[in-house]
Amino acid sequence: MSEIIDQIKSDRIIENRRKTRRFAVLWLVLAFVVSSFLWGYYVGSGRARITGPMTGSASGPVEIVGPRTNAAVRTVDFNEFWDLWSNIKERYVHQPVDEQQMFYGAMAGLVDSLKDPHSVFFDPPANKEFQSEISGKFEGIGAELGLKNGNLVVVSPLAGSPAEKSGLKIGDVIVAVGDKDISGLSLDEAVGLIRGPKGTQVTLQILRGKATKPQSFVITRDTISIQSVKLDYVKSPAGKKLAWLKVTNFDSDTAAAFEKAVDQIAKDRPAGLILDLRGNPGGLLDTAVSMLGEWTPGAVVVSERYADGTKDDSTAAGEGRLADLKTIVLVNAGSASASEITAGALKDLGKGTLVGTQTYGKGSVQDVIPLKDGSSAKLTIAEWLTPKGVHIDQNGIAPDYFVDLTEADYNNNRDPQLDAGRGLFDGIVPKTSSATSTKATK
Hints:
By secondary structure, the chain is of the alpha+beta class. It contains ten helices and 21 strands.
């Protein structure tokens, strides 16, 4: 997941969410997420629950998370498993076999049987790599990747990363790494091919738009440091001062950085706020809930729905310093998971107007557990719903004003989405694209 936070995943620190609930952290990127065992993002805090990037790619006692219901309980004869294990050990032609690899393979197969791209088992090396990523610094190409319609797609190249500098764009489909066709590989297997140490190169074969012939992109890996919150100021067409707050991830340090930015906004007293969530693949659910408290303190901002139909509501707590500040939220196809939770809550609660294109559509929550041998796993354990009860998985969230940003715009340093957001503060209604998405957010 150095290249995929789903995990996009997303998918980065473990903290206790509520003492009354399984010492869990909810991670949102979109999008983030084995059978009964889950992968911990951060050492020493128990399990983490995430809705993070669509991406897949930290220790403690093994925990078994029992199902919330026992519907359709079936008896499994594990003697069959051990019979096969013994046959492989005794009769496989290439001896000796590696029992540890057999064990991890069985664990991975257990999770793979769910056919859920966000539920993944990680052996110790993969787990170790993930820990470096969630710290906000890692080595790789610096792109959020995800599986969509069976394809490995670029959810978002990180700002200033080798991926961005090489020309990778949101929506690019990666069909091969070097000479290796990656069709049929899991998200984490593909990421394992793409990631690598600083200074080494990787060649990606990319399909863009309606192209039928892939382009080659040679990317030199580097150390990736993520600054998840950036505050700037722009003006409306009529000259009003507007805060432009870009949030690139919902990481372990995002909440503190966001609070500092809000402190500055409160001092500067701008006429409005543009919250830019474009290309943000998600991250910690708790971070999104905490941030929403500056707009909607005391309100239910997201709900989780479990297998047995029960729901768990998350109420935002905060000072509400942005509650009366007109807010425009910029979103696009790279806005996933925690970004969608934030955008969906602001839209449903009447605190934000969405401008841009349809969001990614990751509406699931993953629970994460570290295992004592250094391996770990993540399991999808819930769906999340917006305050109005909308489940956005696979659909995404439709903006209030559909404004595209074309390749020509990108190449010529134009930003019609930002311009449309600025104009709304002067009552200028954006000219929406004729390509308005027909996806329903139901």
